[in-house]
Design a protein that fits this description.
Length: 95
């Protein structure tokens, strides 16, 4: 979802009457709310991907790992991945 653009200060100053000004101010508040909501939705989607990565690492998905800076990387993912790699090495040494 692309972000909407609010009325500029100049557009607010040149409102022809109080009703138009209030309408523009209200529109700006709605646009700001929509833009914040869009940002939050993007963060939620990234958190979902990161959580899925933690699950994959916990189940042994240690090939093609995410690295810091990747969309799906998180500290929880890295900790889980490191622990799984240690677990797999320990299990292999006991077989």
């Amino acid at each position: 979802m692309s972000k909407r653009t609010k009325y500029t200060e100049e557009e607010l100053r040149t409102s022809s009457d109080e009703l138009e000004l209030r309408t523009r101010l209200h529109t700006n508040a709605c646009i700001e709310h929509d833009n914040i909501q869009a940002d939050l939705n993007e963060q939620i989607e990234q958190f979902r991907v990161q959580l899925a990565g933690v699950s994959v690492a916990a189940m042994g998905g240690t090939k093609n790992v995410a690295v810091q800076g990747d969309y799906g990387w998180s500290l929880a993912y890295q900790d889980t991945l490191d622990l799984r790699i240690k677990f797999d090495a320990l299990r292999a040494s006991n077989e």
